Amino acid sequence: MRETIAFLGAGSMAEAIISGMTANKIVSTQQIIATNRSNQKRLLELEGTYHIKTSLDKKEVIEQSDILILAMKPKDIKVAIAEIKSLLTENKIIVSLLAGISTGFIQQQLATKNPIVRVMPNTSAMIGQSATTITSGKYASAEHVHLIEKLMTSIGTTIVIKEEDMDAFTALAGSGPAFYYYMVEAMEQFVEAKGLDKEIAKPLMVQTIKGAAAMLEASHDSPKVLREKITSPGGTTETGINTLSEHRFQAAIIACLEQATLRSKELRDLFEK
Length: 273
Ligand SMILES: NC(=O)C1=CN([C@@H]2O[C@H](COP(=O)(O)OP(=O)(O)OC[C@H]3O[C@@H](n4cnc5c(N)ncnc54)[C@H](OP(=O)(O)O)[C@@H]3O)[C@@H](O)[C@H]2O)C=CC1
Ligand SMILES: O=C(O)[C@@H]1CCC=N1
What we know:
binds NADPH dihydro-nicotinamide-adenine-dinucleotide phosphate; alpha/beta; 12 helices
């Protein structure tokens, strides 16, 4: 790609995307420039690791960019837009990573006709394994969406969705890795309690998740059928599943996703004021 990409915000998600993009070489490191609110040390760290450009001068960053990625927290969006709106020309594509915040709000705050594309990646972008959803704002053409899709494909799989579904997919895929990590944390507690060798346990746990994910992808069987094929009557799996069921495991997962979805909407209500 020929476009220059600017990150407004240089935190974990910006880094995960920079890492994925630079490893994939979809853009050269010199086509990426990042800025943040004030943390110069962090910018130097990113410069050192990824050999990208950084600057605390927003004017310089914006002038150099064709695609501007908003990567600050939802609570900071209003101030961030106020800082950049007078620096923008309408040919720049704005990409938002922000949970909850709608394209309509960004458009209204900018008061310009810049195309806006909203994406929800996850931190597995770091190794090119994100599951990213994409949706478009009012002035984003199919061509703009296609360009951002191409860019995001460098950090994993991408799917274009309706904006109204963003909250739910933010829960499922944006936050999703954290929910799996939380389960692995519990497994680690078990390993510790049993006094098992962590060096042996970790690769086994990781391969078990990888294998299950690969089965979900490759097999025509539903998750339920896949589970039943492991569950011998009167065996270990059945006992384990019954215990999860007694602890209302599935209800807990559904509640977790419901609440995370709701929080995405709440972030909109809170910070679009
Ligand atoms: N982390 C994740 O897994 C995911 C996060 N997201 C979304 O990505 C966004 C960023 O999250 P995350 O990386 O975790 O957050 P971090 O807190 O790690 O980073 C936030 C960054 O925003 C910068 N910032 C704050 N205000 C401004 C401003 N006015 N102009 C420029 N930069 C500013 C901060 O700079 P400074 O350090 O100088 O204050 C910091 O670099 C959020 O909106 C989140 O919803 C989306 C998907 C997944
Ligand atoms: O927790 C959050 O709000 C962000 C959005 C998805 C993942 N992290």
